Amino acid sequence: MDIIIIGAGLAGPLLAQGLRRAGVGATVFERDRADQLSQGYRIHIAPEGELAMRDCLPPELHAEVLATSGLPGSGWRVLDPQLRTIQEHLVPQRADADGPGGRHLTVDRQTLRRILLTGLDVRYGAAFERFALLPDGRVRAEFAGGASAEGDLLVAADGTHSRIRAQLLPQARVIETGTWELYGKTMLTDEVRALLPAAALDGFCMVAGGDGRFMPLAAHRFRFGGDDYVMWVVGGPAARFPADVSTLDQHAMREAAAQFVTDWHPSLSAVVRLGEPGSVHFTTARTAQPLEHWTTVPVTLMGDAIHTMIPQGTSAAVALRDAGLLCRRLTEGAALLEAVRAYETEMLDYGFAEVARSLKSAG
User: Fold this and answer.
1) What pLDDT shows up at residue 334?
2) Which of 273, 195, 176, 286 is CA-nearest to residue 234?
3) 17 and 129 assigned to the same domain
4) For the FAD-binding domain, which residue ranges apply (predicted)?
5) Domain annotation covers residue 300
6) Taking 70 as the threshold, does the pLDDT of residue 121 lie above it?
7) Which of 63-77, 89-103, 138-152 has the lowest mean pLDDT?
8) What total of structural domains would you count in the chain?
9) Residues 150 and 24 in one domain
């Protein structure tokens, strides 16, 4: 069995690792070059994501994920614009972290991605364009420049703007919520530590205004190695941003982010202005509409390629769970389409349940 995976983010490489452990051939195709840095910084991995990594990764790579994860905080807090705590939820550390229930992790996305790609067959600079279902039941993936690859199954792990989803499921809709965001990171120097609210150094915090603006802040302090930093996001209704914000250079984006919260506690805009310009990016919050199950073919989808959701700290774990589930179904011995159908049925159920939960939490 040969599996073609489009997208070398997180879920695609994890699926390839699991298949490789099971002796199944898998090749990952990525449109970006190998030297292009991945966007994204500190992310939360819920227990189902950690369990998927435990199942799919060789023990030494899983151990590296744990070793490079962030020091745990005590929970999450909501602050007002003057940095006063208005809500908190403390999370005791599990004594049985290695047990069957999995564990919560915070990880640096770029570090995790590097670990997940270790030892895989990855073809960089391969921009997927279209697929063709072949008469023999296999599938051909076609790439820019005329290259192609044939396999038994094509897996879309190519994110919110998935070209595979657009071809396979033209009825699928991804909706803009009207929320825009600028995000980046600031290295955790003594100066920055003095500026940050204590809550940002002890877990995750959200500064929430009464006008739709918000600012998540969370320090990532590596257990071992790595340069500690604080991840920040400024977000709110699109109308509150400069209309041309998406076209600004990164220095100007950083200043726009600082100006966005300039009437809040002065430490917040100061932390943003100390951020690394090259780390600053613009994005919009999107959500997917639920789908009925389609007729199964040798093409399937994982993660944001099928159930894009508003960021609420769970999307990465759900995508990793997809990878773990698909790997398990493909290696249980069932016929290929039967295995894919079983995966899709279960994935659509929990995936869109999480989409609905994220929408409710954001509301």
Assistant:
1) 94
2) 273
3) yes
4) 150-346
5) yes
6) yes
7) 89-103
8) 2
9) yes
